[in-house]
Specification:
It contains three helices and four strands. The chain is of the alpha+beta class and about 120 residues long. It has a single domain, classed as Nucleotidyltransferase, domain 5. The protein has a four-stranded mixed β-sheet with strand order 3-2-1-4. Helix 2 packs parallel to helix 3.
Length: about 120
């Protein structure tokens, strides 16, 4: 039986999550992407808490589109700023089963440029 693209992505994400977990010292950056928007959270999986989050649907990012590379960079800059405010410097990057290409790669590069290490 043929699997849909969404089902295949979820299988990849589950495979990644089996060996990737965020801690208080090194939380996980969980990326979520749709055709129009992009969002990310910094998560401490041990405590089950979201430490910081940013999304292209926020009022602060009103003029940017989350559906392109510039929008992904803008969301990453906001997330990195919030991470620094929460004293987070090192993270684990969870691409969510998405290919490390285009908006996902631009998001990761913008986080690194803003000072987060992973």
């Amino acid at each position: 039986m043929a699997r849909t693209t969404h089902e295949l992505r979820l299988r990849r994400h589950a495979r990644i999550r089996r060996r990737l977990s965020g801690t208080a010292e090194r939380p996980r950056v969980a990326l979520s992407r749709s055709n129009k928007h992009i969002s990310a959270q910094i998560i401490d999986d041990v405590a089950g808490r979201t430490l910081a989050a940013a999304s292209s649907v926020e009022p602060t990012l009103k003029g940017t589109s989350g559906g392109n590379i510039d929008g992904a960079k803008a969301v990453a800059a906001v997330l990195a700023q919030r991470a620094k405010a929460a004293s987070i410097t090192t993270v684990v990057f969870d691409r969510g089963g998405f290919d490390y290409h285009g908006r996902v790669a631009a998001f990761a590069d913008a986080l690194r440029a803003a000072g987060l290490e992973f």
